[in-house]
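Sequence in, structure out.
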Amino acid sequence: MEKSMDKNDFTQGSIVSKLLRFMIPIFGALVLQAMYGAVDILVVGQFGTTAGISGVSTGSGIVNLLTFTVTGLTMGVTIVMGQYLGEKRPEKVGQVVGGAIWLFFVLSFVIAALMLILARPLAILMQAPREALDLTVLYVRICGGGIFFIIAYNVISSIFRGIGDSNMPLIFVGIACAVNIIGDLLFVAVFRWNVAGAALATVLAQAVSVILSILIIKKRKLPFVMKREHIRFNPEIGRFVRVGMPIAFQEILTQLSFLALCAFINRLGLEASSGYGVANKIVSFVMLVPGALMQSMASFVAQNVGAGQEKRARKAMVTGMMIGCGVGIFIAVFSFTRGDLLAYIFSKDEAVIARAAQYLKGFAPEAVVTAILFSFIGYYNGHSRTLFVMLQGLAQTFIVRLPMSYFMSIRPKASLTMIGLAAPCATVFGILLNLLYFIKITREK
């Protein structure tokens, strides 16, 4: 028990070693999550229809709007747990976990009802191509019916990241990824259920992962005690919601911007819509290192803030930037030069491949600049300065990303390359805002 706590104690020891040791399993989990989402497009692209690719792409965008919002809210759980552990107050952690279980259980029923009722209006709002409209609605409704398991997975993972354990979430998502691949091949390739098969495989995979993760947890010793009476509405809910709500709101805005971008591109026709759907799955892999950095940084910084080690927290942020940029350069170059090769994995339609490659050329610099931005965000999240994180996300979305994407989409002979370029431009703007805020709080301290 003491050995495990020392390994997960980020307030002492080598920053690079401990950050990488914690980050690598998170990166692995994100790789599997990206594969999890990509398999749907891959199998539907190979054994389904072009309209099916568009349906899964648009439908998963709607589902991600809700699930990523919940993921942002669970970050509040991770951060508050990390701060309590840094303060050496493990007795408070059980109340945080109990409150999280109660809140997200109730929330899952609300979200499920919304997805089932609003699936068609949302698909129409997204300007889903006529050929893919019914398929999009079907995908959203099936995933909505199983949203409880999707939310439960995210809550369980946030709890383990809060105690400094990133290995268990990796195991959980590994289980889900394996089941999803089997389900996709069975339902889509064998039974030919197209989009419905992909959605059913997604829900089944999450259900199996949650059930097995609960069985694993029961056999593990945790660095806190949670009693049955903790699973109720308690004061700790207010604390992690205050921390997590701005992150969740930022996720809402980010996903809305992606949905808006998808709607802009859907207007350009089925080939553009499907090409963007393929490119978007590749993008999920491009963003793996920055995403792992942000999650790792929040937990790492939270513990050091709780222990009063601000200098160590700042060193961790700079270390994360250096690691992320080093890896990001290689990813950006490959995405820019061989986007067609990556797209070929998902579709054999030459027009779809060409459109996906066009988008990736513009998006490629994002692999580098986002590593800097997400290291900043992880640092601020670890300090519970999530309101600023939300505001800078708002600024990026509404000042740069959406206006530029829309302008590029309505031009004659609209280029997906220029639409894709809106993302790194918005990120550079965000870095400037974060740098100015860092200078401000440094002077205050």
